[in-house]
Amino acid sequence: MAKPEAVFIYIGTYPDETAARADYDVVKDLHSLGAVGSYDASVVTKDDGKVHVNKDETATRHGAWGGAAAGALVGILFPPAIIGTAAVGAAVGGVGGHLWRGMSRADVKEFGELIDEGEAALVIVGESTLQQALDKAELKAEKQVAKDLDVSSKDIDKAIREAAGEVS
Questions:
Q1: Which residues contact residue 76 at a Cβ distance below 8 angstroms, ignoring those fewer than 6 apart?
Q2: Tell me: the pLDDT tens digits for 94-148?
Q3: CA gap 111, 129 in Å, rounded
Q4: Are 133 and 6 in contact (CB under 8 A)?
Q5: Residue 113: count of CB within 10 angstroms of its CB
Q6: Selection from 140, 139, 122 nearest residue 44 by Cα
């Protein structure tokens, strides 16, 4: 069992972006119902050798994490040259550093290989309470990997606030 403040990562793959977005909507609904704490989620696609992180404006308002955590994870998994969006940006710094320390090289390889050419993936980074809610929601991913990291969600919150200039 993970520590209550641990960070949880979920990556599920789908046959297309529409299927991934359907589960993305389920996660947003879970948040609206108060079933999950702070988290960040993105639909990721890979085509023509480029990785695209797709977010919509209302979907990035999940507690303090608003867009930085999933972008930082994608920035760790893929070299900058193949990331086709600017969504990763500055978030990779502090947030990515915390996530990186919580993952082994095998984790990074497993997460990155899960997203195959021509498929879509749902990437979620959140508090450990998210895992239980996702298990109950029975997301429709074809393949999935879920792991608790030995990283404090409080450290992620602080890194995101610092990146936004809210905390010195």
A1: 92, 96, 99, 100, 103, 108
A2: 566 667 677 778 887 888 788 765 689 999 988 888 888 998 998 999 999 998 8
A3: 20
A4: no
A5: 10
A6: 122
SS3 content of the chain, % helix, strand, coil (to 5): 45, 25, 30
The closest of 60, 65, 11, 58 to 38, measured between CA atoms, is: 65
Q: Is 1 exposed, middle or buried (0-12, 13-18, 19+ CB in 10 A)?
A: exposed
Give the pairing type, strands 120-127 and 39-47. Answer: antiparallel
CB 124 within 8 A of CB 130: yes
Q: What is the pTM of this model?
A: 0.79
Cα gap 116→16, rounded to integer Å: 11
- Return the closest-CA partner of residue 28 out of 7, 53, 59: 59
For 50, the token pair is 């480029």
CB atoms closer than 10 angstroms to residue 70:
30
Percentage of the chain with pLDDT > 70? 68
